Amino acid sequence: NMQALFKKMVNANISPDIFTLNILIKGYAKSLHMNDALRIFHQIDLYGCTLNAHTFNYLIKGLYLQSRTINAMELYQEMISNGCTPSNMAYNSIVNSVSLTGDFHEAIRFLTEMVDKLGVPDFITYKTVVDRLYREGK
């Protein structure tokens, strides 16, 4: 498993780089083991690595998939304060999370921010907002 292999790597005095750590975070996030993903995230400094947009994008999506909207939003704020730009994947996760809470004003604010930072949002983002508005009768 990933954790055992990572442990062997560290025990062999092989320092992981940000790419290795991001692969671990992505794997944990995709398998919805978010506490493990967040543990790696909080240890990144110990390995002398610098967070990047990929790190945050994987975590935000994983947190969204676990309906941890508040945690995803906190991570989004940390991402911005670290100078990283969210990807379409991160914005889609945020817009979807916020839409599911019924805060359409906030969802549209993120949609607008996405347009400003990345250009035209993809179909998934628009579909998410329109679908949630329709379901709420707005």
TrEMBL record:
Protein name: Pentatricopeptide repeat-containing protein
Domain of life: Eukaryota
Organism: Taxus chinensis
Placement of PPR repeats on the sequence: 17-51, 52-86, 87-121
Pfam families associated with the record: PPR, PPR_2
Record NCBIfam families: PPR (TIGR00756)
Keywords recorded for this protein, A-Z: Repeat
Family recorded in the similarity comment: Belongs to the PPR family. P subfamily.
